[in-house]
Design a protein that fits this description.
The termini are far apart. By secondary structure, this protein is of the alpha/beta class. Helix 2 crosses helix 3, helix 9 packs across helix 10 and helix 9 packs across helix 12. It is 41% helix and 18% strand. Strands 4-3-2-5-6-9-7 form a seven-stranded mixed sheet, with helices on both faces. The protein has a two-stranded antiparallel sheet with strand order 1-8. The protein has two domains: 202 residues, Rossmann fold; 67 residues, rRNA adenine dimethylase, C-terminal domain (Helicase, Ruva Protein, domain 3, Orthogonal Bundle).
Length: 286
């Protein structure tokens, strides 16, 4: 069954009475070259297990199953169950868990299904849930080696932007704190049915075992970053003063202690700068 063939997909949907759910951002891949590349470049191979987020009709799931020892896919749309039972019937190393990934205990799921095996995460993420899913996987410090995902091209650019550059944002900083992001390849909008209004891209996030920043208060660290980027055109001393309740003259002194100029804007600071500022502010509170 060629799951990237429009005719096959339409016949499959009609036979099972399936219809697209716009609220779930469903766009199904019809480009046969994309999923094999995601699986291969995502580190799927013998000895590795894969956690997939969102299955669609199973086109990526099949490619993961052909390469990995075991695949567990979390899919929110129960309407896809009879379709997946058919499209994944030949694979005995695949299990589909019908649940909302944002409400699933992923750490327990990985431990239960994969044990001590090396794990990678792969996904074709709907645009509306890109940031929450990525940051959940990273923030929960799941025992995974890498996360390879297809997202909107503009989101991919933001995610992979290095802290301290013009294109970076709070999401870029969060991703770079936990991982090494890399742009893999672009996927044009004609690769999907129905075709979205934007192009996509596949990125890989290699999880860091140690980022070398020695941040002792991650909650404060990310609070500073989010506040700084909340008014990115302004000098960060302004939003930080209000957010942290620290008078500007005192905050200016903490900037100086951290080696940061008082006129700095959010995109000018590296993660090391934010870590230094976090340490200065944290020490002030002791």
């Amino acid at each position: 069954m060629q799951l990237t063939n429009i005719g096959v997909i339409k016949e499959l949907f009609e036979r099972h009475g399936f219809s697209f759910t716009k609220s779930l951002g469903q766009n199904f891949l019809i480009n046969p070259t994309v999923c094999p590349k995601i699986a291969e470049m995502g580190g799927c191979e013998s000895g590795v297990c894969a956690l997939e987020i969102g299955t669609g009709v199973g086109v990526l799931t099949q490619e993961l199953a052909r390469r990995c020892d075991k695949v567990v896919a979390v899919e929110i749309d129960t309407g896809l169950k009879p379709i997946l039972e058919e499209t994944l019937a030949e694979f005995d190393n695949v299990e589909v868990v019908f649940a909302d990934v944002m409400e699933t205990d992923l750490k327990s799921l990985i431990a239960e299904k994969f044990g001590d095996s090396e794990v990678v995460v792969c996904a074709n993420l709907p645009y509306y849930i890109t940031s929450p899913v990525i940051m959940r996987v990273l923030e929960e410090k799941l025992p995974v080696k890498a996360m390879t995902v297809m997202v909107q091209k503009e989101a991919a650019d933001r995610i992979c932007a290095a802290p301290g550059t013009r294109d970076c944002g709070a999401l870029s900083c969060g991703v770079s704190y936990y991982s090494e992001p890399k742009m893999l390849f672009k996927v044009n909008r004609g690769s999907f049915m129905p075709a979205p209004n934007v192009d996509s891209a596949v990125i890989r996030l290699d999880i860091k075992s140690d980022n070398g920043l020695n941040v002792t208060d991650e909650k404060l660290f990310f609070r500073i970053i989010r506040s700084a980027f909340s008014q990115r055109r302004k000098q960060i001393i302004n939003p930080l003063s209000g957010e942290l309740g620290i008078a500007k003259p005192e905050l200016a002194g903490l900037f100086a202690d951290s080696g940061i100029k008082q006129t700095a804007r959010a995109e000018e600071l590296t993660l090391k700068d934010y870590a230094a500022l976090c340490a200065s502010i944290s020490n002030r509170n002791k």
